[in-house]
Amino acid sequence: MDEDIELDSYEHEERRGPPDQPRDADPEITNRSTPPIAPGTLKIANPILPIKFFRMNGQYSVAAHWPGDFDEAGLQKWAEELRGRLDVARISLGLLFMAPKFFKHASQVLEIVRVHARVPLLVGCSSHSLIAGSDEIEEDAGLVLGLYYLPDAVLTPFYFSQQQLDEASGATYWHTETDIAPEETNGWLVFADPFHLDCESWLKSWNLAYAPLPVVGGLASGDYSEQSTQVYLNGEVFHEGGVAISVGGDVFLASVISQGCTPIGDMDDHKSGAEFYT
């Protein structure tokens, strides 16, 4: 899910999302390279809480894992420190993944990250297990935040629901709903709730509109006993549906097969770039 794509000025658009999404005029960004920073340990707020920062791809992305519980002051300093390790004037995208123990604090965490990491577009979902850098975190997962600088990208978020899927008919339905034609995007980054959305039917419907463009992302996990997950878009917490980010401009999506994953569909489609894994 955390692809690093190197490319040079950033345009951010938002269409048909929650009404409080900001529309900022995006300044041109100068590409400034910095010496690589090795993963390290920083102690914030809690004197025994180790915080790891991971530089994933030079000056284009950085990620960190917060292993503790909700701590407003600590999270503020953590987000500020992480943002300071990406030496660009303006980042393009933030990806945030939180363990279920943060459910009741999710809105506060989103606000902290947006303000203190200065994130213009923030998306993600809940998950029992997390990945930061080369680390897989399964016990007491906490949360993970990745920040990305994607020059010359056009990123357009779109929230969709089961109701829209039920209404979908024909290839042009999603073009109208998203206001994005196939030639205007290079692919989609998607996070969805599997309990209240028929994800398989959604993917088939989406492919009628956008195949063979790649769809990369994943399904949220959460409280299985309550069949509850969360999906995030900027300051909004959704308990159903999904969030799709159109990746356009000069940035393209590419996927790889992870361990335990099996390609779905005709292998000719995978060769052409329409890659979906389970």
Low-confidence stretches: 1-55, 269-278
| Global outline | globular
Total strand count, please? Answer: 15
Strand order of the largest sheet: 2-3-4-9-5-6-13-14
Q: Per CATH, which architecture of the largest domain?
A: 2-Layer Sandwich
Give the percentage of residues in beta strands.
25-35%
Radius of gyration: 18 Å
Provide the CATH topology of the largest domain: Hypothetical Protein Tm841, Chain: A,domain 3
Q: Can you put this structure into words, describing what you see?
A:
- The chain is an alpha+beta fold and 278 residues long.
- The chain folds into 2 domains: 14-148, Hypothetical Protein Tm841, Chain: A,domain 3 (2-Layer Sandwich); 153-272, 60s Ribosomal Protein L30, Chain: A (2-Layer Sandwich), CATH 3.30.1330.
- It is 19% helix and 26% strand.
- The protein contains 6 helices and 15 strands.
- The protein has helices at 72-84, 106-116, 162-167, 173-178, 199-210, 267-272, and strands spanning 11-12, 40-43, 50-55, 61-66, 93-98, 122-126, 130-132, 135-137, 143-148, 153-160, 188-192, 215-219, 231-233, 236-238, 242-249.
- The strands form 3 sheets. It has an 8-stranded mixed sheet with strand order 2-3-4-9-5-6-13-14, covered by helices on one side. The chain has a 5-stranded mixed sheet with strand order 1-10-15-11-12.
- The longest helix is centred in the first third of the chain and has 13 residues, at 72-84.
- The chain is globular, with a radius of gyration of 18 Å.
- It starts with 10 loop residues before the first strand and ends in a 6-residue tail after the last helix.
- Mean pLDDT is 78; it is low at 1-55 and 269-278.
